[in-house]
Amino acid sequence: MLKILVTDPISEQGLQELYSSGEFEIIEKIGISPADLLQTIGDFDALLVRSQTKVTKEVIDAGKRLRVIGRAGVGVDNIDVRAATKAGILVINAPDGNTITTAEFTFSMMLALARHIPQAHASLHEGKWERTRFTGVELRGKTLGIVGFGRIGTEVAKRAQAFGMQVIAYDPFLTSARAEKMGVQVATLEETIQVADFITVHTPLTKETRHLISDREFSVMKRGVKILNCARGGIIDEAALLRALEEGIVAGAALDVYEEEPAIANPLLSYAQVIATPHLGASTVEAQVNVAVDVAGGLVKILRGESYPHTVNLPALTPETRKKVEPFVQLGEILGSMAAQTIRGGVQQVQIRYEGEPAQQPADAMTRSILKGVLSHFYREEVHLISATLIAEEMGVEVIETKQPRHGTYANLIEVRLSGDQGTVAVAGTVVPGHGMRIVQIDQYSVDIAPSEAMVLTWHRDQPGVIGHVGGILGEAGVNIASMQVGRQEAGGQAIMMLGVDREVDEAHLKKIRDTIGMDRVLYVELPTS
Ligand SMILES: NC(=O)C1=CN([C@@H]2O[C@H](COP(=O)(O)OP(=O)(O)OC[C@H]3O[C@@H](n4cnc5c(N)ncnc54)[C@H](O)[C@@H]3O)[C@@H](O)[C@H]2O)C=CC1
Ligand SMILES: O=C(O)C(=O)COP(=O)(O)O
């Protein structure tokens, strides 16, 4: 039975999805220590976390059986996604379930910041009645700068507009058409933070967004600006925020997330102008049910071999697109594998040409599959669809894709051309509806043969008797020939023979074939046909 480890608090309703399927053994070890996690993870096929568990490279390396990591929420910065990708482990999340909750939370923080509610509450609890000390400001008429205009940023903008605020936003993916539709001004980061009275960040934490707001950015802000971070600790440089508070640039900050969590000894917490919560943005009953149900459903699907839309390290396809690309994904791996087994020496470049039908589809899944087929013959470890692109990049293999409309015999065609230190090889194939895959070209030779799990390829001079002779040797080896195809450019010239065989051919008999008169090269290849 597949085993799922749960290490952060996940809503019961989500876990119920897993338990009720009856297909998995579920072990809950909430708050497991990093050392225990390293000890334990090796027995599990899936890991389910929120933001507390740090899924480091060490954890991933120790997760020998791990196939999928599920994140009940949005941010995956607590997971070493690159290491997971390299290891062929799928990372999935649940980005839709906590958007409204987090937007509402951000807005609550903005109101609290504008009206000093936490400070006034604390003062009254201390027995003080300080009515003038906590005079605030209205949101109406103020400008809100939103950095990161994705799901949450967009919902925060809608709420701000309802409060009569002007919204200016910076997001590299925000088009002016969308901004206009939303009634939002699109701007650069600098413009956004320069004019805003309130600034809120809603990007993920990545290499690019770490310390996106630092000393330089604080220096251009309006004096007395109020700033919020309900996204991720580290997007705002905490040391720079401290300096900006000291200098009076920032009049107030609302923080839900910190560079280090739990943020027990964070110096920012000693500032009266800083209001702070312990990473509560997504903590509502509704959001926790939503994300847990979504991600648990995703784990079930992935472990059953089905698809789930929110894959972090593998582009997701709609069911219709998946149906269309699936045959080409299979063909791609076979072509890649065939090309890799026929090229002499190593591979430095993979050129892929999609023609006709596959050219109309997103190439990613097909390209990954081709790379898997190619790299599996050169890489020391197993190559997965998830890891193929990253491994090609790490091996320094250049990948070039081209797409073109149908212009020849075939309604669909994929050509894989490999180049390396000792030469080039090109293999092309097509999918014939109702008849399956066909290999239709090897280098300069046109052929037409169904790929089979085991094949013998010979390059020889076109002359009488070769086919019979090779057939005789295979017969002597007890190897049945299931299919055969010969290609040549001209009578008596160079030719190729491709034989689909029912089982492996041993080295001794391959050598006998090699010793046949006129034979240039003989290869036994195995293709990933199943
Ligand atoms: N405090 C909490 O409990 C919660 C925090 N979050 C955090 O909020 C983040 C955003 O969540 P969603 O809006 O759902 O994600 P999203 O993916 O819908 O939006 C993120 C946006 O940031 C933009 N972005 C990326 N790099 C950028 C850059 N360098 N500069 C400006 N914009 C950039 C993207 O284009 C995208 O539009 C999550 O990644 C997570 O870290 C999410 C939920 C709860
Ligand atoms: O979804 C996110 O990115 C969050 O930050 C929520 O984190 P949590 O699941 O509450 O630990």
Automatic annotation (TrEMBL):
This is D-3-phosphoglycerate dehydrogenase. It comes from the Bacteria. Its EC number is 1.1.1.95. Gene3D superfamilies: 3.30.70.260, D-3-phosphoglycerate dehydrogenase, domain 3, NAD(P)-binding Rossmann-like Domain. Belongs to the D-isomer specific 2-hydroxyacid dehydrogenase family. Keywords: Amino-acid biosynthesis, NAD, Oxidoreductase, Serine biosynthesis. It catalyses: (R)-2-hydroxyglutarate + NAD(+) = 2-oxoglutarate + NADH + H(+); (2R)-3-phosphoglycerate + NAD(+) = 3-phosphooxypyruvate + NADH + H(+). It is an enzyme of class 1 (oxidoreductase). It holds the Pfam family PGDH_inter. GO terms for molecular function: NAD binding; phosphoglycerate dehydrogenase activity. One of its GO terms (biological process) is L-serine biosynthetic process. Catalyzes the reversible oxidation of 3-phospho-D-glycerate to 3-phosphonooxypyruvate, the first step of the phosphorylated L-serine biosynthesis pathway. Also catalyzes the reversible oxidation of 2-hydroxyglutarate to 2-oxoglutarate. Residues 455-530 form the ACT domain. InterPro entries: ACT-like_dom_sf, ACT_dom, ASB_dom_sf, D-isomer_2_OHA_DH_cat_dom, D-isomer_DH_CS1, D-isomer_DH_NAD-bd, NAD(P)-bd_dom_sf, PGDH. Pathway: Amino-acid biosynthesis; L-serine biosynthesis; L-serine from 3-phospho-D-glycerate: step 1/3. The lineage of its organism: Bacteria, Bacillati, Bacillota, Bacilli, Bacillales. It comes from Sulfoacidibacillus thermotolerans. Signal peptide: none annotated.
